[in-house]
Amino acid sequence: VPVSPASMPTSCTMTGNTGDNLQVALDSAVRGDYVCLAAGATFVGNFILGPTSGSGWITVGAAPNNPSLPAPGQRMDPARAGQLPKLLTPNSNPALSTADYAAKWVVVGLELGVSPGVFTYQIIRLGSYYSTTPAPLATGIVLDRLYIHGNPADNGPRRCIDLDSEDAIIMNSYLSECKDAYNDSQAIAGTNGT
């Protein structure tokens, strides 16, 4: 395990609220930062975790005191999702993905999904299925205590998580409603990782 919940930051270095530009916060974060998203805040877009340098990790997600966040080591349950920050994709691109060489990110305590009526291929995409060498693949990515889901009335998304990365952990998360009536679908699919 590359990172222990016990070693995660316990205080926020940046805070994001509904209407804030989350991508700017992600782009400006440095290792050791905790980008806390406000309880119940919704961010609509296609957000990208980029390359980082230095020591430590960047954490992004619910603040440690968010009432909907389970304790470290406990699994997320949809019934707890009421105050989780939300990332929603408005189109066929993932709500959250990684750039080439993305490294050392912990994503914790978020609800990730799709805007109503939208089809997407995956809600989270780690790495790339186009890479022909391992070097640019995302590495050191931890998804912890997330609620990742499609909409019951909609077709899709085809996958909850596309796992084409070098080193990633998905733990204590709840995935549901990832389905495609016309193609194979998966909760987690990895085709081009190490």
Task: Considering the chains and any ligands shown, give keywords for the structure.
194 residues, mainly beta, six-stranded parallel beta sheet, five-stranded parallel beta sheet, 1 helix
Give structural notes.
A six-stranded parallel β-sheet has the order 1-2-5-8-11-14, with helices on one face. The chain has 194 residues and is mainly β. It is built from one helix and 16 strands. The radius of gyration is 15 Å and the shape is globular.
Percent range for β-strand residues: 35-45%
Label the overall shape: globular
Q: How much helicity do the residues have?
A: under 10%
Side by side, the strands of the main sheet go 1-2-5-8-11-14
Q: What is the helix/strand order?
A: EHEEEEEEEEEEEEEEE
Rounded mean pLDDT is 90
Which sheet architecture does the biggest sheet show? 6 strands, parallel
Counting helices, strands and paired strands, the structural category is: mainly beta
Low-confidence stretches: none
Number of beta-strand segments: 16
